[in-house]
Amino acid sequence: QVQVVESGGGLVQPGGSLRLSCIGSGIVFRIYTMCWYRQAPGKERELVASISSGGSYTYIDTVKGRFTISRDNAKNTVYLQMSSLKPEDTAVYYCNVSALWGQGTQVIVSS
């Protein structure tokens, strides 16, 4: 089955950390750029970070220095390490590769 599945979301206090994971199956994972998007309530989905097949990465300005994207091609997995989380990071986080989207994992940053 061709799919990507996210995990790792949850409730965390401001300043805390979470690591999201996205496992791909049915695709040649290593050749694709992998992306993390997020969608907050009432807002449009936005690209948070991406990592190319060669390991180059991009981040939106609001997460630079706090989030780190990485990939493990042997495990068909892409990660998003999130630190110094803020309430405005609250959103559903989605993994994307090519036309594939996961179901999303909820991140809530609240005290």
Report on the structure:
- The chain is mostly beta strands and 111 residues long.
- Helices cover 0% and strands 51% of the residues.
- The strands form 2 sheets. Strands 2, 4, 5, 6, 9, 10 and 11 form a 7-stranded mixed β-sheet that branches. A 4-stranded antiparallel β-sheet has the order 1-3-8-7, with no helix packed on it.
- The protein is globular.
Structural class: mainly beta
| Helical residue percent band | under 10%
How far apart lie the N and C ends? Answer: 39 Å
Unreliable stretches = none
Residue share in β-strands: over 45%
- How many β strands by DSSP? 11
Please give the largest β-sheet: 7 strands, mixed
Mean pLDDT over all positions: 96
What's the total helix number? 0
How large is the radius of gyration? Answer: 13 Å
Large-scale geometry: globular
Series of secondary-structure elements, N-terminal to C-terminal = EEEEEEEEEEE
Keywords:
11 strands; mainly beta; about 50% strand; four-stranded antiparallel beta sheet; about 110 residues; seven-stranded mixed beta sheet
